[in-house]
Structure formats: C-alpha cells, structure tokens
C-alpha cells in the first residue's frame, strides 16, 4: 500500500500544513495510507484527532517517514531530515528551486524524486494543482485586510450625523491573481479602486471588477496576456513612462498595494522614495513582493517601516497569515495533482516521462538533477 507522509513544517514563520482532514480522507479512499507528524496541523487549526478521524495515523517524524513512498510538504523538507527515506520516494512541495538550489542537489544525492509544485505549468488541466494561484489569491485578500487594519481611517464613504467620511482611494499595481483579488476585496470594503499592469489584457479585467485602469499609453506594454500569463522586464523607455504615470497618480492615493513579479528575477522596483514622500501622511503601502526583493524602495519583510509619514508593510510569507484557508487550498492542490496521476492497478500515482506536467515539475530523478530550468 502506498504510504503518504505529511511532515510538520519547520521553516521560520511557516504556519501551513500540506494535508487537511478532507485530503487525508480522499487519499485513504484512493487506497493509500496517510501518516501525519504529531502536531503538524496545529498552527493551521487542524488537530491530530481530526487527522486520525479522517483515517491517518499520527506519529513522530521518524515513524511517519519510515517506508514512505510520498512525502508532502508546504515548503521543502530539510534533506538531512529525510535520511532513511527509500530511494525513489517522492518529495512533493513548494521547493523554491531557484532560491534553494543546493537543496535540490541534496535531494538528488538522497536518490529521491523531488517534484516542485510551483513549477506547475499554466495549462487548463493543471489549474486545480496550481499552488501559486491558490496562495496568491489569498495573499491579495490579506494585503487589503492588513492595509485596512494599519490605516487610521475607514474604507467606505460614510455619511453620518457628525459628518462625512471619505472613501479610501486604493491603487493596485500588478493585476495577476493576487492583484485581481486585491481589487475585488478593496471594492467590497467600499474603496475607490484603480489599478495598473504591463500586460494589456488586464485592462478589461480591471474594468470588469469596477476599478479604474491606469495605464502607460505613450510606450507599448505587453500585448494580451503575455507568454504563459507572465510579464518580462520592461524597456528603459517603458519604465520611465511608468514612473511618470505613477508619480502623477500615487500622491492622491491612500493605500497602494504592489504585487508585481517577474518569474526567475528580482521583483521590479515600482515606487521610489520620492514618490512615497509625495503621499499624504497616514497612507499605507503594502508590498506583496517584499520577499522577492520588493516593489517599493525601503520596504522590509515583516516590519512596519514608517517613511515620510507613510506606513510600508509586507510579510515574508503572506499565505502563512491565513494558515487555515491557505493550507486547505494547498492540500487540495496536492490532492488534485496526485489523484490526476493515480494508477489504480499500481495503487499509486505514476508520472509518464513525456507528460508536460512531469517535465515541468520534476527536479531530480535517479540521483540526478533533471529539470531544464535549473541548468546553466
Ligand atoms: P505574477 O505573480 O507573475 O505577477 C503579478 C502581476 O504583476 C502580473 O500581472 C504581471 O503582469 C505584473 N507585473 C510585472 N511587472 C510589472 C510592472 N513592471 N508593472 C506593473 N505590473 C507588473 O502573475 P500571476 O498572478 O501569477 O498571474 C499572471 C497571469 O497568469 C494572470 O492573468 C492569471 O490569470 C494567469 N494564470 C493562469 C493560470 C492557468 O491557466 N493555469 C494559472 C495561474 C495564473
């Protein structure tokens, strides 16, 4: 019987867990046995008793890993903790392959097959397995909620007997999965919302959510969705035009949420110190890209930086601030992936070598690093 192991996350600040009671039940229904490390779900509000009721066994890390075929994680487990794992066992998690490149080599040395969930291709078939989408969506929501908490004023317009409270003006920079959810959340709270991106397809998406698109018009951006929905680094000319546009817009904003990322590169710098200085005191900037280098000059992960009277916030791990929902969706992504490849006869998931998903996410196999994105 295939044994699935779920370890307690040990990275600093990590509160999520890679399985929920629901996914344990479904793995058991597929014919697998599931073993969860004691206390693995506590920070995500899942008790050991709930895992047991769902059909898992709960034990020490050593007991959980013994004879495991598949190890599930939110972040990649320390290779040292995996000694004794059988050769060929799978390690399936968000493995941060570029940031933790040496760890990938260590997985190869252990002889395990490391599968990086963040390398899931953006194809329709894999949408339900995409951890970047499921976690970014929650991050976009949380950025607005935490900004609202740090803002000394209200979001919606209120007409009261004591006077009128003005609606907050919220500007979202970067309209991918996180940005779209940030727009929707700020709108629900009653703010006046505007948003910008470099990909032209987002203009319509911004409008359909009832927000105002603010776009560079003088220099062409990226046509349509961009390759795979991703942005690339923009030309100097574009960056200059964008900086001018932001300068004229940002001074009138109360809350700015930045979400801009470029795959495999540092986050683009979108807001300078001079632009921060032009904002009203009491304004809030939330830098969702702070862990990737930051979109905002001077932002620091897990700190509130006060600059020119403006609060700049950003979490190093935003989904970890909503551990229950983030874990439930992450766990579902893992379940959707493994169950899509489940081979009934083999009683376990089987990854065909020529499948687009296999080649995208497989980092190591048979003692070697095999992923093209990690060469060169
Ligand atoms: P992302 O996290 O890579 O980047 C966030 C946003 O920042 C993107 O919209 C990007 O265009 C924008 N950006 C980059 N540089 C910028 C700059 N200099 N100025 C302003 N904005 C900038 O993107 P994401 O959230 O992962 O997703 C992007 C797209 O991919 C979305 O349209 C999404 O719907 C699509 N997507 C598709 C699938 C699928 O089909 N399976 C899965 C996930 C996402």
Main attributes?
binds nicotinamide-adenine-dinucleotide; 376 residues; six-stranded parallel β-sheet; globular; 18% strand; alpha/beta
N-end to C-end Cα span: 39 Å
Backbone CA Rg: 22 Å
What is the overall pLDDT average? 96
Bound molecule kinds, no repeats: nicotinamide-adenine-dinucleotide
Unreliable residue stretches? none
Considering DSSP H and I runs of 4 or more, what fraction of the residues is helical? Answer: 25-40%
Task: Tell me the major beta sheet.
Answer: 7 strands, mixed
SSE series:
EHEHEHEEHEHEEEHEHEHEHEEEHEEHEE
The general outline is globular
Strand tally is 19
- Count of helical segments? 11
**Percent of residues in beta strands:** 15-25%
| Secondary structure category | alpha/beta
- Report strand order across the widest sheet: 11-10-9-12-13-15-14
Question: Can you offer a commentary on this structure?
Answer:
There is one protein chain. With 376 residues, the chain is an alpha/beta fold. It is built from 11 helices and 19 strands. The chain has a 7-stranded mixed β-sheet with strand order 11-10-9-12-13-15-14. Strands 3-2-1-4-5-6 form a 6-stranded parallel β-sheet, sandwiched between helices. Bound molecules: nicotinamide-adenine-dinucleotide. Residues 122-123, 126-127, 130, 132-133, 136, 173-179, 196-199, 225, 229-231, 234, 259-263, 268, 270 line the site of nicotinamide-adenine-dinucleotide (NAD).
